Amino acid sequence: MPAKGARVHSTDDSLVIAGRSFRSRLIGGTGKFDSFATMRDAIDAAGVEIVTVAVRRIDFDRPDEDITASIPERILLLPNTAGCETADEAVRVARLARAGGLPTWIKLEVIPDPRYLLPDPLETLRAAATLVEDGFTVLPYVQPDPVLQKRLEEVGCATVMPLAAPIGSGRGLKLREAIRIMVEQAEVPVVVDAGLGAPSHAAEAMELGADACLVNTAIARAGAPVGMARAVRLAVAAGRAARLAGVMDEHVQAQPSSPVGGVVTKA
Amino acid sequence: MSVHVGLCTVNGRPHDLEPGETVARLLERLEWSGRFALVELNGEPVERDRFGEVGLADGDAVLVARPVAGG
Questions:
Q1: B11, CA 20 to 30 Å: which among A23, A136, A145, A196?
Q2: Which ipTM did the prediction report?
Q3: Contacts of A62 (CB under 8 A, 6+ apart)
């Protein structure tokens, strides 16, 4: 179970999740790449230390290539429960993954809604409580809801992962204000997941104070995924540096940058 | 020549069992060579380090999954 205050950063500004440190604040997804070779090169270019994978039945009539052969062993595999519509289904998939030797970390997704792929908060909370009790490190995918965030922290989740916009939509930080409140009161890392379509979106999330971003489609579906992976890596780093440096206050009116007095053409 | 000792299902498909067939032997017969095989036997997960000792019986339902691309 993650200790309270796990969000406190060490001096090297590592991301700490459930007591484990990561240098990168970008988490990668492995979906939607044209090939595993491109995916592997994008993982390298993104500098990620964690990537998500899904779990599916093997079709023994048409066995496909093993994705894990294209993911360096130093990368933490984060299995997800995508495709699960109830807490019970998600718990089953998590236990299956763990028994088969995948890490005990689980990206918990309970999604009954096929159109917008929005997670079910009640079933997510129920599954999270069960899985934490069962020894999993649970990273739940949620709608940005600061009250749900507190409930998930209380049952021992290692992070909360609010969506910026629907999965794969690329629409950016549409739910910004709720995410801002989550950041303000977070006791475990806030990982903005889903909907980030461009490096600027990821930078904005990090400037807002997110601890990390999870990006998949924006990289995999870019014109040049490896180049975009590098761009998103730089954006996350830039947004984080800006957050630490402190972004200036906004003003409605202009504030001159040059001295007001002593203008040459005025007496 | 194989001796028919029973029939299980693997991901819903019928599978003729050999005498003493274990989960590990099943995966071998199905020529699975991936780094991970995630196995359920009759709805219960099977720990990877027990694949060699868990035997299969007539009527068993085996589910075998693996990690795939996903976000």
A1: A136
A2: 0.93
A3: none
Q: Is A45 a residue whose pLDDT tops 50?
A: yes
Nearest to A125 by CA among A111, A114, A140: A140
As separate numbers, helices (DSSP H) first and strands (DSSP E) second, chain B gives 1, 5
Q: Looking at the partner chain, which of A31, A66, A101 has a beta carbon nearest the beta carbon of B70? A: A31
User: Hey, is the C-beta of B28 within 8 angstroms of any chain A C-beta?
Assistant: no
Residue A5 has pLDDT above 80, yes or no: no
Which positions 54-73 of A are in contact with B (Cβ < 8 Å)? 54-60, 63-64, 66-69
**What's the pLDDT band for A11 if we cut at 50, 70, 90?**
low
Interface contact B46, partner A, CB < 8 A: yes
Q: Does B61 touch chain A (CB under 8 A)?
A: no
Asked if B9 reaches chain A (Cβ–Cβ under 8 Å), the answer is: no
Q: Is A101 helix (H, G, I), strand (E, B) or coil?
A: coil
A54, A78 contact by CB (below 8 A): no
Count other Cβ atoms within 10 Å, centred on residue A210.
29
Q: In whole angstroms, what is the distance from residue A211 CA to residue A26 CA?
A: 9
In which band, very low, low, confident or very high, does the pLDDT at A91 lie, cut at 50, 70 and 90?
Answer: very high
| C-alpha–C-alpha distance, residues A112 and A120, integer Å | 7
Instruction: Name the minimum distance, in Å, from the CA of A187 to any CA of chain B.
Output: 25
Read off the amino acid at residue A44: D
Whether A6 has a pLDDT exceeding 90, the answer reads no
How confident is the model at residue A61, as a pLDDT? 87
Measure the CA–CA gap between B43 and B49, rounded to whole angstroms: 18
B67 and A77: CB-CB below 8 Å? yes
**What pLDDT score was predicted for residue B2?**
56
Q: Mean of the pLDDT values across residues A82-104?
A: 97
- Please say whether the beta carbons of A230 and A19 come within 8 A: no
Quote the tokens at residue B27: 């995966």
**Which chain B residues contact residue A97 at CB under 8 A?**
38, 67
Task: Report the predicted TM-score, pTM, of the whole model to 2 decimal places.
Answer: 0.91
